Amino acid sequence: MSTARSGVAARTSFPRWPAWSTVPALHPRDVHVWFVNLDDPGWPEARFARSLSPLERRRAARTARRRDRRDLIIRRGLLRLLLASYLASRPETVGLSTGASGRPEVVDAAGEPRLRFNCSRSEGGAVIALTAARRVGVDLEALRDVPEAHRIAERWFTPREQRALAAAPTDRRSEVFLRSWTRLEAAVKATGEGLTEGLGQWDPRSSIGAGSVDPRSGRAAAPSVTWSTWTLEPDARYVGTLVVEGAGQRLVCRELVADPVAER
Ligand SMILES: CC(C)(COP(=O)(O)OP(=O)(O)OC[C@H]1O[C@@H](n2cnc3c(N)ncnc32)[C@H](O)[C@@H]1OP(=O)(O)O)[C@@H](O)C(=O)NCCC(=O)NCCS
Fold first, then answer.
1. What is the C-alpha separation between 232 and 17, in angstroms, rounded?
2. Is the overall model pTM greater than 0.85, yes or no?
3. Does domain 19-262 match CATH 3.90.470.20?
4. Which of 38, 43, 245, 255 is 20 to 30 A from 20 (CA-CA)?
């Protein structure tokens, strides 16, 4: 982001995640997070569209705005490519289905996950987080002005988060809000606890510890808690949060810059 806006301070010389086009093996302890620039004109939209399931194609066809339709095709096409690379399969034959409450998943004949993953997108960027067997949730938000931040915070944030928001300097208010928001969304997506019931009685973040990613290497040491959480900043335009079941994970963050090729 090159110019300061109300609620969002400019971030300059911001390190990006390492760019890769190969998919490393996913060991039991691993969490792989891929950032993709959906706006890259180099992604093969027509080929990605052909790899989609009939259901995904119908969803794309129902998406009225051209940009939203392309966005959907690229992120689903890339998700299929990545899953196919990890599962030694082909994008069009990856058995992507929709689980409880709309969550995409890949399960075997017995209904068990073949691996676990979660996705999030915001304003031209997307993240895909994958693990062999641990539950995972991820949320990404483009840094932008959020005029209604205080109103949303009153409804969804913990008292501590509300205090932090109130204390934030004006030019950082939206960023502070978006960081808390991604923590909430990632926890909701990892734990499977819906937002709609309200979090007054139970907060999915309460059992989650804190950690951070070294953006230069894309790695981080995990805190030892039941759920582990990391702040994600794939580049200067975005903030995000990753929540993963358990502790002791090995986190590897990359930007996907071309069709992935599995390392064998
Ligand atoms: C589901 C929800 C968390 C998605 O968040 P969002 O900020 O709107 O959008 P994001 O880009 O971050 O995430 C969308 C992706 O999350 C994934 N997703 C969808 N439903 C999901 C669920 N129930 N749990 C986890 N991930 C889900 C999908 O991959 C989806 O991408 P897709 O459009 O390509 O299929 C959000 O719509 C929400 O909070 N809804 C409130 C209703 C609710 O609580 N639902 C149950 C959540 S467990």
1. 10
2. yes
3. yes
4. 245
